[in-house]
Model the fold of this input.
Amino acid sequence: MSANVLFEPIAIGDMELKNRIAMAPMNPGYTGPFGYHSDQSTAWYAMRARGGFGLIITECVVMNPHRWGGQESLNPSLLTDERYYRFHSEMLDVLHHYKGVKVCIQLSPGWGRQGHPHAESRDCPAGAPSAIPMETDMRLLNKGWHKQLKRLAPPEIGHLLPDLETIQNMNDEEYSAFRMLVYEVLVKNMPDMAHVIFGDTPRALSIPEIIDLEDRFAAQARAAFLLGYDALEVHAPHGYLIHQFLSPRSNHRHDQYGGSLENRARFLINIVGKTREAVGPNKPLGVRLSGDELMPGGITHDEIKQVVAWCTDAGANFFDISQGSYENPGAAFAPDGEDDYTRWAPGFKEASKGLPIITPNFINPETAAAAISSGKTDIISLGRQSIADPFWPVKAKEGRIKDIVKCVRCGKCYSDLMTAHWLGCTVNPLAGKEKLYPEFWLDTPELQNKVAKFMKRAHGLPQI
Done:
């Protein structure tokens, strides 16, 4: 199949994309210790901009300034107040020198129960809708996750981890015994990984705290557009704070933010409505949602479709698909194959009355082109594949399919994040080291022309 459909333009609000290929939002952990964008952050995105992506969706940027915001080893980017603004605008200034590239900030109110007490506030639990801890069901691991656990485990405990098929086929009694063994071993030998699998108990947020987040979100969304972002995506997928409000599995409240689906969706719908009012009628304002939580007692696809409809009425004008949560990582973040998320796209398209839909999880251009040609989705996004080959769009456009370096779904990028390393890649040695090789990304003709003109005039300046 021809890949030409990937390179047709598309409009979202007042933004026109030069193609249908987006870089999916991923937290690479490249920010500084206090959440400021680094030179590596800029280089990371710039290499993908040079590689031909029409839309760059940033990592999850947290706007929550409170001690109960929680944290992860991901060391997220922050946009809580004016101290962070120049670091975002500096990055945007570089990215916008690449012809036609648009940049979407993914803005988040925080981690909730998928986070932990902040390093500076160990006495303060993360805030969530209810005081229900998260726990990964290890029977839902896939090949990539299992491989990385085996790789990371110290020799003295590595032999305790059975093969993946054995874990997946455990009954509840067998799994209970296995879970206890893993918990004891990880707490003693790999505490960072223990926190990933066995979450801390969060604190239930008060109504004033929830309303404060809604208002602050809208204010920081407005600031993001003033800084130069072309679009904004509300971070509401795969088990993070907004998703926790949506899901009956994690939301056991008995007030206006819990109980019925309408109440559980209130936090998200208020954020969308207040943000639309703050940024005006035409800005691209999207929501990323899990098509299904894929866990017993979690939010279902039919319920998500209703949430999509409500978000549309509140002012959203595009949607981005995810699935699962930390409790089901094999589905949420790292399916072993490709095109696993497109199954949810028709439901999003129907519920939103035809708004643009972004669907992730592709490796091959022909598979991505087929997803768009089918009419199920409008824009495809590359996550792990954009790490493996930042120049995928250019190669696809030029028909250099055999030159594409394909993601092998090994899970190294994820395991690096969960063990406090900068994100790296098995097949791309440049991943995480982009700033050291500017010759591969610092190719911005417009900026170079300006610099050349300046230098030409500067020759006549006196010596200092």
